[in-house]
Amino acid sequence: MLEALSVASLCALLAPAPSQPSGDAVLRVHKGVLSDALAGSFQHSNALQGALGDVPLGNGGPAADGRRDLLGGLGGGLLGGGGIGGLLGGLTGGLLGGAGGGLLGGLTGGLLRARDDASSGGVAGGLFSGGDDGDPYGGAPRNIPHPRGWPVAGHDVPAGVAGGALDPEGLPRDGGVLGTAGVLGSSGGLPGRGGLLGGGGGVLGVLGEGGLLSTVQGLTGLRIVELTLPRVSLRLLPGVGLHLNLRTRAAISARSLLGFLDIAVDVNITSRVRLTMDGASYPRLVVERCDTLLGGIKVRLLRGLLPIVDNLLASVLNRILPSLLCPAVDVALGLVSDQLGLVNSLVPLGLLGSIQYTVSSLPLVTGQFLEIDLNTAVGRAAGGLVDYPLGRPEAVPTPPRVPMPPLPPMPDTSSSQLGLSVNFLSSVMSVLQRQGALDLDISSGMFPELPPLTTSTLGALIPAVFKAYPESHELLLKIAVPEAPVVTLKKSKGVIQLTATAEVMVIHPQDVQKSLCLLNIDAALLAQFSVEDHKLKISVSLEKTDLSLVSSSIGDFDTSLLETLVGRIFDVAFLPAMNSILAEGVPLPRLLNIDFTNADVDVIQDLLVLSA
């Protein structure tokens, strides 16, 4: 029991803690978005173009691992192997003859002769030789005719055959067609080192080392002429980055001593990629390991004259393709990294200010998505940034900061998710307030939906006004927002708390203005959120107002008498003006072509969540 508890406690300690956002915005990106971005980087860039063209070849010398390089020297080409044998034969035995016992003869006996005279086909031991002066049918002199054909059953094998193919005991003769120096011999025969199926010679080594199937060792002019658009698949590695898989097909041409080669090969590129941060706080995708796996290698010699399949070619291509294709992966990942870096941006907030998004910490990698914490810096058009000033901070109080809650689980139908805190939304409202965008002067006749703004209209509600101004005078209503509005978010409800002042000015002759009264208005505005053109749109409507009298030239009066008129002014004049400013929209962070237009918007405690 104690052991089980200890294990459980250890697991709890080692388990990663839930992510706590450190900024004012959190952006989640599904792995499918990353895959699409990477595929797009191959499609719309020249990432693959760098791999096309001539392949650098060596000089025929040994490589660092002891193997010969791509040139392979004369000994590994189409015309031979091991440096001593070619297509027409070699010192160890060629198709048409040689010094080691080939198809037409050699030192120890070939198909026709096998003795000392290699140039004449040999003197003794061949298939058509039975002794010093013999022939296929025994050792009789040449001027004596012989029967044709093999003997009938029950008769002895003719001496020529016995002497040329078999020894006296009926076994393959050492110098005959079936012997060690003949067609089936281990050294110079068909399957031997110098034979048709062996190694060490030219075409005699078709299946052997240095033969036709290792023609790649003698290739020149190797050139990648085409790479198909790769199919991209990836999986995220929690806490690390991603495992990338690319499948493409390469068309390669080459020259050899026999002619031109066309090579087609399926290439599977696998890479382990780590997500890091550079010195400028830009996220970067860095390749830690890159490998290639080849399959379906097809070679056509002499432009289709001789179709062959050569698995030995894989050993060479496996050496050269990683050095050519892995840099293409680096280029594509670099383009995706650049797109990731675009989230660090400075975007205009209409004509009034700007918003700067910056990555606050190393993005979190889970099995399904990438999570990026963002700092938001909202600034005025001609001034420092409000929350994260660049340079000296402004000595202006800001609303108390609210800890940002974690994002809720991302819906299965969503490819991306963005969370915006109340701190960020309040900062946007603060910029509008500091720029005076929320202030409004209303005069009589400006809004036909309103009653005339005169002392007579006001005096009908407040007798003290009629008493002070028995003759009608026009009024000027000055609405100002002296403090930054505060945004509060609760489940399914967004509210903007706004404190405004409304000063009523009486216009005297010669445009002389005198203050009648100053009202304080605490308004609660219901906020509705939507996304259009990748901008957050906010619209407000009046929930309630609370009036109080600050000062008056006509003495105290009951402000509740003005609530209906003030509500009407808000609905007809102030709120439409505020909504027209908010309609400019708040630019959202851009990342990997994610578009939150028409995204689902959820309002939860202290957080606005957009899901696209």
Query: Residue share in helices?
Result: 10-25%
Poorly predicted tracts of residues: 1-18, 59-165, 177-214, 382-396
Taking all Cα atoms into account, the compactness measure Rg is: 45 Å
Tell me, briefly, the overall form: rod-shaped
* β-sheet strand percentage: 25-35%
How far is the N terminus from the C terminus?
48 Å
Number of strands: 24
How many strands, which pairing sense, and closed or not: the largest β-sheet?
8 strands, antiparallel
Mean pLDDT: 74
Q: Helix count, per DSSP?
A: 8
Which secondary-structure class do the elements indicate? alpha+beta
Explain the overall architecture:
This protein has 612 residues and is an alpha+beta fold. Helices cover 17% and strands 32% of the residues. The chain is built from eight helices and 24 strands. Strands 1, 11, 12, 13, 14, 15, 23 and 24 form an eight-stranded antiparallel beta sheet that branches. Helix 2 packs across helix 4 (313-341). It is rod-shaped. The model is unreliable at 1-18, 59-165, 177-214 and 382-396 (pLDDT under 50).
Provide keyphrases for this structure.
eight-stranded antiparallel sheet; seven-stranded antiparallel sheet; 8 helices; 24 strands; rod-shaped; disordered N terminus
